[in-house]
């Protein structure tokens, strides 16, 4: 029976692969492999309460099945049955199904009209979501991340990884600052990741306040800093801040803090050990005089940009039977978030999807889910 199912799945591929007709095969040409009427009876008995008769999920974390690829529904159900995909309720339910039930129910739901979970309310873009969340930061850091307040750092164009680290350090008090502790206290991880994406995407401009020290005297002293912060203060490392064009007063205060123990960081403490105050002012003057540059973005920030990568497999044109990727459009946000988090954390196993999921932050996952949930289902 297993063999039969497999050959039925492979058959259309073989036909398409062998046929040399110039006209592409119409997707509708694949006849359903199961019995629709029999499938409906199973749906009424066992699936209806959660997936409806038309396949529309009845809750925010229940996927839509209507119009989903039949081969994918089969894969998913067999995954629950064999335990390669884990979910207590579904594993129990699908273990009660016969091979014929599985074929019939997959054919039945695939034949239903695809549904939409309803318009997504989120931004589908970490930068856009970050701008809203950063409203309270603008008073000190500038709404575009270019602060005009002496002693307050600019955030524009910094690496998002550094900005996120700094916020988390303020939040868990490993970086001590009374003002910033209050600012980040109510932010969750997704909000902090969005804010980091927003400020990282802003163009940094040089501060207009000249520094008190001498840039010429500071340049040779900055030699040993360049390995991490970049020769001109443009850091290439995700966790190291850029210093070019930063506020002079903030740089001096911060270097003193590292040197004297007010800001804990072993490497920075070692770098600044024994450096006298006038030299700190000179180093600051050197960095203030450098033209700031936005750190290179390493990842997309919008759900739509991610989708350009994802749609190689999930797009309407992929009918590769060896890589049966489900339709994502119109699925509920919460379900997509859970599915992607499960892949990232290895709770749901699929090698292609694990590789895609691994670099995604919580905020990326949220943006992608909002994007796909808002697409009209095909
Ligand atoms: C108690 C509610 C409930 C019932 C009843 C139920 N499901 Fe589900 N179903 C879910 C949830 C929740 C998920 C998502 C599970 C996960 O994250 O893997 C799901 C996932 C699925 C999937 C995977 C969809 C995808 O996009 O990956 C399929 C296929 C499926 N169900 C089919 C069925 C069938 C067929 C029945 C009836 C035999 C059924 N379900 C009954 C709640 C239910
Ligand atoms: C009342 C003024 C004020 C507000 C409002 C404020 N900040 Fe700050 N922020 C500061 C000051 C001052 C510092 C420097 C603190 C220190 O020395 O560690 C700072 C430091 C930071 C840093 C570290 C930057 C670096 O280069 O090390 C980050 C990141 C940051 N703030 C993010 C935020 C975010 C996000 C918000 C809004 C949720 C915010 N700030 C709101 C004053 C403010
Ligand atoms: C081994 C790598 C390394 C070297 C070398 C190094 N730094 Fe740093 N620096 C870092 C890292 C990482 C941070 C972020 C630390 C943190 O989160 O507190 C940092 C933070 C800073 C900051 C705080 C900037 C901000 O926006 O909060 C200043 C200022 C600074 N370094 C100056 C210097 C100077 C000056 C030198 C040379 C004398 C130097 N650094 C050498 C890795 C380095
Ligand atoms: C190389 C092909 C490929 C690429 C690229 C790919 N996927 Fe997938 N995806 C798959 C396959 C195959 C599955 C079905 C895996 C399974 O059965 O668990 C899947 C499953 C999923 C699911 C689960 C859907 C459901 O109904 O349960 C989500 C969500 C998803 N992918 C999102 C994405 C996103 C977002 C991207 C881009 C960042 C992406 N995928 C890129 C092949 C791919």
Walkthrough of the structure:
By secondary structure, this protein is an all-alpha fold. It has three domains: 29-115, Cytochrome Bc1 Complex, Chain D, domain 2 (Orthogonal Bundle), CATH 1.10.760; 126-288, Cytochrome Bc1 Complex, Chain D, domain 2, CATH 1.10.760.10; 302-378, Cytochrome c-like domain (Cytochrome Bc1 Complex, Chain D, domain 2, Orthogonal Bundle). The protein is 52% helix and 0% strand. The chain contains 19 helices and no strands. Helix 17 packs across helix 19. The protein is elongated and about 85 Å long. It starts with a helix and ends in a 5-residue tail after the last helix. The model is unreliable at 1-29 (pLDDT under 50). Bound molecules: heme C (4 copies). The site of one heme C has 21 residues, from helix 7, helix 8 and helix 9. One heme C binds at residues 42, 46-47, 49-51, 61-63, 65, 73, 76-77, 85, 87, 89-90, 93, 105, 326, 338.
Can you lay out the helices and strands and say which pair or pack?
Layout: H1 2-18, H2 36-51, H3 70-82, H4 88-95, H5 99-111, H6 126-133, H7 138-141, H8 160-171, H9 178-184, H10 189-200, H11 215-221, H12 226-229, H13 248-260, H14 266-272, H15 277-288, H16 303-314, H17 333-344, H18 351-357, H19 362-373
Helix pairs in contact: 2-5, 3-4, 3-5, 6-10, 8-9, 8-10, 11-15, 13-14, 13-15, 16-19, 17-18, 17-19
The structure holds heme C (HEC) (4 copies).
């Amino acid at each position: 029976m297993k063999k039969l199912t497999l050959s039925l799945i492979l058959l259309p591929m073989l036909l398409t692969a062998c046929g040399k007709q110039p006209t592409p095969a119409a997707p509708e040409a694949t006849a359903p492999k199961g019995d629709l009427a029999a499938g409906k009876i199973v749906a009424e008995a066992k699936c209806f309460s959660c997936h409806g008769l038309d396949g529309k999920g009845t809750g925010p974390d229940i996927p839509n099945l209507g119009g989903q690829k039949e081969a994918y529904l089969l894969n998913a159900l067999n995954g629950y049955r064999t335990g390669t995909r884990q979910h207590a309720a579904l594993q129990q339910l699908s273990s009660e199904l016969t091979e014929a039930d599985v074929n019939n129910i997959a054919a039945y739901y695939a034949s239903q009209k695809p549904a939409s979970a309803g318009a997504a309310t989120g931004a589908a873009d970490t930068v856009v979501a970050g701008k809203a969340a950063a409203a309270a930061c603008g008073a000190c850091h500038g709404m575009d991340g270019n602060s005009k307040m002496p002693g307050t750092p600019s955030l524009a164009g910094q690496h998002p990884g550094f900005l996120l680290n700094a916020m988390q350090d303020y939040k868990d008090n490993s970086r001590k600052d009374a003002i910033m502790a209050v600012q980040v206290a109510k932010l969750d991880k997704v909000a902090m990741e969005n804010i980091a994406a927003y400020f990282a995407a802003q163009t940094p401009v040089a501060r207009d306040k000249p520094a008190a020290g001498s840039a010429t005297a500071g340049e040779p002293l900055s030699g040993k800093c360049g390995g991490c912060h970049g020769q001109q203060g443009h850091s290439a490392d995700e966790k190291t801040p850029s210093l070019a064009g930063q506020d002079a007063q903030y740089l001096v205060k911060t270097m003193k803090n590292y040197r004297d123990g007010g800001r804990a960081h072993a490497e920075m403490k070692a770098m600044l050990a024994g450096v006298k105050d006038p030299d700190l002012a000179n180093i600051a003057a050197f960095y203030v005089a450098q033209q700031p540059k936005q750190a290179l973005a390493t990842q997309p920030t919008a759900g739509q940009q991610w989708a350009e990568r994802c749609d190689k497999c999930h797009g309407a044109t992929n009918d590769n039977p060896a890589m049966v990727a489900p339709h994502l459009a119109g699925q509920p946000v919460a379900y997509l978030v859970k599915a992607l988090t499960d892949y990232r954390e290895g709770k749901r196993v699929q090698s292609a999807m694990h590789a895609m999921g691994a670099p995604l932050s919580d905020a990326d996952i949220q943006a992608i889910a909002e994007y796909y949930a808002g697409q009209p289902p095909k």
